[in-house]
Amino acid sequence: MGRHPEQVAPRIPVVVHARDPISREGALSALERDSRIEIRERKTPGGVILMVDHVLSQGTLAQMRRAVGGDGSKAVLVLDTLQDDEFHEIVSYGVSAVVWRHEATRNRLIQAVLAAARGDGDLPADLLGRLIRQLGTGGPPTATGPGFPSYGLTPREVEVMRLVAEGFGTAKIAAELCYSERTIKDVMYKLTTRLNLRNRAHAVAYALREGYI
């Protein structure tokens, strides 16, 4: 009997936007050598948009809104800094990952792109820590604005969201909670659909602001 050829996973289409040519060339150089990634000039439905800037300027924000629409695209932001209110805004528009520029090594960028493509998201630990400390000191009020519906989480959803906030992927969450990966994906799907949340990063922001984690 002949051997079946191994199935090769499709490459992830990635478009890079940057404020300056040096930043763009650096990001392209880091990503284009990875066999799992395919650099594109124009965005592809379900692909990833990597945006590099120093701060979240109005231009970057407007470009991000145009790029991440209802076609399943994910966004990764590479910035020097991000204010807490800006974080809540960007996740409501579909940003799945944030990378600090001083941490933007080749491996770090690839990790963020792969996580975004999977829908897992990837957020800096210090950013999540900042938001958690806010909640402990009477920071932002519970979510009441657009993109943050006021419905509760089930105990199992809270367990899952705590691990998502710690940076765990689907497989690690399943192992930690002794569930199947399919169950974890189902929990996340039902949670984001019920609460009208765009992705895992948006769900983390909601859970933080509501005080669940």
Specify Rg, calculated over alpha carbons: 17 Å
Mean pLDDT across all residues, rounded?
80
Q: What's the helix count?
A: 9
Oligomer: single chain
Strand order of the largest sheet: 2-1-3-4-5
Kindly report how far apart the N and C termini lie: 54 Å
SSE diagram, text form:
Blueprint (H helix, E strand, L loop, with lengths): L11 E7 L2 H11 L5 E3 L8 E5 L5 H10 L6 E6 L4 H9 L2 E6 L5 H13 L6 H12 L18 H11 L4 H8 L3 H14 L5 H10 L4
Parallel strand pairs: 1-2, 1-3, 3-4, 4-5
Helix pairs in contact: 1-4, 3-9, 6-9, 7-8
Summarize the structure.
With 213 residues, the chain is of the alpha/beta class. The chain has helices spanning 21-31, 58-67, 84-92, 106-118, 125-136, 155-165, 170-177, 181-194, 200-209, and strands at 12-18, 37-39, 48-52, 74-79, 95-100.
What does this structure look like?
The protein is globular, with a radius of gyration of 17 Å. Mean pLDDT is 80; it is low at 137-150. It has helices at residues 21-31, 58-67, 84-92, 106-118, 125-136, 155-165, 170-177, 181-194, 200-209, and strands at residues 12-18, 37-39, 48-52, 74-79, 95-100. The longest helix has 14 residues, at 181-194. It starts with 11 loop residues before the first strand and ends with a helix. Helix 1 packs across helix 4 (106-118), helix 3 (84-92) packs across helix 9 (200-209) and helix 6 (155-165) packs across helix 9 (200-209). The chain has 213 residues and is of the alpha/beta class. The chain contains nine helices and five strands; from the N terminus they run E-H-E-E-H-E-H-E-H-H-H-H-H-H. A five-stranded parallel β-sheet has the order 2-1-3-4-5, sandwiched between helices.
